[in-house]
Here is the input.
Amino acid sequence: MLVPDPHRLVHLQLRRFAGCPVCSLHLRSMARRHHEIATAGIAEVVVFASALGDLLPYAADLPFPLIADPTRALYRRFGLERSARAVLDPRAWAAALRGLGSARLPGRLPTDLLGLPGDLLIAPDGAVLAVHQGRHADDQWSVDDLLALAAASPSRQTR
Here is the structure.
């Protein structure tokens, strides 16, 4: 998988850590609608602030590539910070509880518990068309948000 992809838009997701209950819940929603996303000309790529060994147990369950970024280099590049709001914001609590009920939890304490999520939509020419910097752990684009952004993107309209 190339980023940028010369033929498709790329939805680059920067998630918190491998096994994050909120992230797992969100990614399952993306996986359920993966065909719809791919049909819209969008490639999914998901980055986690985790080591490769921590990420591998979750990779088989998802239909898109996962990237390990334990040093948070991509997060810094796109201005995604850490904040206590990630877990203290009440808007994240319901998703955390739902995710805890159905997620495989990480085998050890996560290194990025306070990380904030982010989303980028990248054109085939590498231009960043849209950016969303999460304000709490459950603040990311939904599939519907992503599809609307892709449909409205200039690179999409010129094809």
Summary: The radius of gyration is 15 Å. The first strand starts at residue 9 and ends at 15. The beta strands are 9-15, 42-48, 66-68, 118-122, 128-133.
